[in-house]
Amino acid sequence: MNFQEIFGQEPTIEASAPGRVNLLGEHTDYNDGFVLPTTIPQRTTVQLGLSGDKQHHFYSENLDERVTISQSDPTPSGFASYVFGCIRLLEKEGYTIPAVNVYVNSFVPMGCGLSSSAALEVAMLRALRELLNLPLDDVRLAQIGQQVEIQYAGLNCGIMDQMASSLASTDSMLFLDTRTLERRVLPFPAGAEILVIDSGVHHELAAGSGYNQRRAECEEAAHLLGVKALRDITDPQVTESLPELLAQRARHVITEDNRVLEAVEGVSAQRFGELMNASHTSQRDDYEVSVPAVDSLAAILQETPGVFGARLTGGGFGGACVALVETGKGAEIAKNVLEHYNSAGHTGRVLVCPEL
Ligand code: GLA
């Protein structure tokens, strides 16, 4: 069903925003560190119109779910929490938001670590910015999106996903310092392209997951080491003074920041791939955010000819692997990898491949 069929009117505004895939720099953003995402071709679209009554009406095409809510109602759950959160936070910023009809349609795969929620937040905020001519730049938009995630979805996340969705593009990498928000747009390593394969294991990050716990562990490690954030340490040996679990967590973050900083020095695709492989090992062994199926997918990718490197991408606990592969070989590699991976009973699938 389209906007007209649901709401009996044509939409006034349409805006969209992409999902992202992070190439290097995982779980570094809430440690004030460095990240290196790019966007994926799949986008989330939001259409808006003024509602005829005093209530907001939200519809998700993907879920075929309709939610009606008044300004004073408590936060709803599911997709509506993000949509409502955007409205609420803009109101807290001092803007008056009229009652709206909102139609959401997403092509960003959900539960795969590709930031479907950031895409929804940025698309919704873009739509409201356009509808009401709000004086918000793309960075401010990302910051509000991050607050929606924290305050309305309970995920104590960093700023990477919303910055990537708001500012990055599919044909380059966005190198971002999450402390200062300084950034550089960089080309992919020469002769390489991006392949993203879903492990088939759904990831769920929100409140109650290991994600918030990891963040708390990092903050405790930084406190014990006497720094504002783990970003302020470059030598992983410093972590040896910490209790073992905190040492592991801090070691991942510090070495991961170092990997990003090396990768943006214009290294070859081969070296970039080695850094991705090392990132996977660090996420698996030190940060413990991988799961066996994802480890097996990453290992198969890493052993396949034409693959420079591969790793778990996104928040973890399931989701997708990103690989850097020889230009033009993505489709063939994906076919070989999936034959092998799915023969063990998994439900892997290609999510991003330039040739498909
Ligand atoms: C999620 C969060 C991000 C980031 C990644 C891990 O996607 O939303 O802020 O922390 O996990 O790198």
Write the SSE topology.
Layout: H1 3-7, E1 13-24, E2 34-50, E3 55-60, E4 65-70, H2 79-92, E5 100-106, H3 116-132, H4 138-153, H5 160-167, E6 173-177, E7 183-186, E8 192-198, H6 210-225, H7 244-263, H8 269-287, H9 292-303, E9 307-312, E10 320-326, H10 330-342, E11 349-352
This protein binds alpha-D-galactopyranose.
Which characteristics define this entry?
about 350 residues; alpha+beta; Ribosomal Protein S5, domain 2; Alpha-Beta Plaits; 11 strands; about 25% strand
Shape, please?
globular
N-to-C order of helices and strands: HEEEEHEHHHEEEHHHHEEHE
The CA-CA distance between the termini, in Å, is: 27 Å
| Number of separate helices | 10
- Radius of gyration, in Å, reads 20 Å
Please summarize the sheet with the most strands.
7 strands, mixed
Uncertain stretches of 5 or more adjacent residues: none
Query: What is the domain tally?
Result: 2
Structure characterization notes:
The chain has 356 residues and is an alpha+beta fold. It folds into two domains: 3-184, Ribosomal Protein S5, domain 2; 189-352, GHMP kinase, C-terminal domain (Alpha-Beta Plaits). It has ten helices and eleven strands. It has helices at residues 3-7, 79-92, 116-132, 138-153, 160-167, 210-225, 244-263, 269-287, 292-303, 330-342, and strands at 13-24, 34-50, 55-60, 65-70, 100-106, 173-177, 183-186, 192-198, 307-312, 320-326, 349-352. Strands 1, 2, 3, 4, 5, 6 and 7 form a seven-stranded mixed beta sheet that branches. A hairpin with a 7-residue loop joins strand 9 (307-312) and strand 10 (320-326). Helix 3 (116-132) crosses helix 5 (160-167) and helix 9 crosses helix 10 (330-342). The longest helix has 20 residues, at 244-263. It starts with a helix and ends with a strand. The model has no long low-confidence stretch (mean pLDDT 97). The chain binds alpha-D-galactopyranose. Residues 22, 26-27, 29-30, 115, 157-158, 160-161, 314-315 line the site of alpha-D-galactopyranose.
